[in-house]
Amino acid sequence: MRRVNFDLDALRSFSVGMELGSFAKAADKLGRSTSAVSAQLKKLEEQAGTPILRKEGRGLGLTDAGEVLLGYARRILELNDEACMAVGGLELEGWVRLGLQEDFCEHLLSEVLGRFARSHPGVRIEAKVARNGELVTQVQTAKLDLALAWHTGNRTPHMEPVGAYPLQWIGPADRLPGPWGERGEPVPLVAFEAPCLVRSMATEALDRAGIPWRLVFTSPSLGGVWAAVAAGLGVTVRTHFGMTPNLRILSPREYGLPALPELGLAIHRAEAEPAPACRRLLEIVRERVAELGGRLR
Question: What is the pTM of this model?
Answer without folding.
Answer: 0.66
